[in-house]
Design brief:
alpha+beta; four-stranded mixed β-sheet; 6 helices; elongated
Length: about 220
Amino acid sequence: MALPLLAASDYGIMVGIGIVLLLFLIVAWVIVQGTRAQLAWRASVDAGDVSAIQTLVSEEVTRWKTARMPKGVATGLWHGVQSAELIDVKPQGVRLSASAEGQYAVVDGARREVTSALDEAFALTARLADMVMYDIPNVKLPYAQVDIYSTFRDESGAAQRCIMSTLCERETADAIDWDEMSGEEIVRAFGGRFSLDDGGNPNPIDPDAPASGVPAVFYKD
């Protein structure tokens, strides 16, 4: 018995359905492969694979340098984020350094400092801690250390020195109210280290100094 011939319209419908099914299979394959890659990265990070951690974090830090400034973020703060560099990677955490400088504006016809290097360091530490703890895909590390540098000038010229060093631990980060707390409050919560002179200006500190016996946060009033 001869099979009925398909009308041209029916043939076209079948071809269309076949193309849709093929596209569906291709998209599904891409999603599955992508998911497997994501799981592989996460497994490597959880296992403390330094190479995997360095790759993922350095790629994200590089992306920050060309990313568009988010709405509501101060220009000086975003410049600080874009100055960030990955300087050390360990199985359980990473270390970043960045630069913070006082911001100046014309006030009453004269240029004046409107935010100090210390103010900027607080805000920058909080922003970087948030980004590195929560915004890097496939990376969830127990800690991240953030060191903030600023410019000092003396008879030998200008040089950047560390003015704030903060060890950001996951347990503390998960308890912080990131939307409500100020940068200073966040640094205090983590126990960030910094020192002020008699005028309230930041002194250079050693970011590698042992924490034992040294107050986490200390001021000179």
